[in-house]
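This is your field. Please look over both lines of this record.
***
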Amino acid sequence: MRAQLGNDIAMKAYREGKLPFPDGTIIAALHWNYVLSEENNKVLAGQFPGAQSFVVGSAVNVQFVVKDSIKYAATGGWGVAEFTDGKPGSEAPHKTCFACHQPAKDRDFVFAHYAPTP
């Protein structure tokens, strides 16, 4: 399960559809494992036979991207960081981040889309 969060600069750009994101943008991605919820499945079974419910399990990591078009020019203007159990991750995976984000080049290398509050 995932959640993406942004600072005020990121959220303003998302809401306005502004691309590329301005320098100073910070986006955080929080990741958790998910687990089957037997408790929820019992509730659902009456009206929705066979339905399965999943809930948040253990935390996986937190990732950050920071937009600085000069400092991180070689990676589309984005710097990356990852933390697992509150400790910084190794730099090795970061070397592959930019290549994975190439398909999102038209969205300034960002996969997440803005979802308005209902």
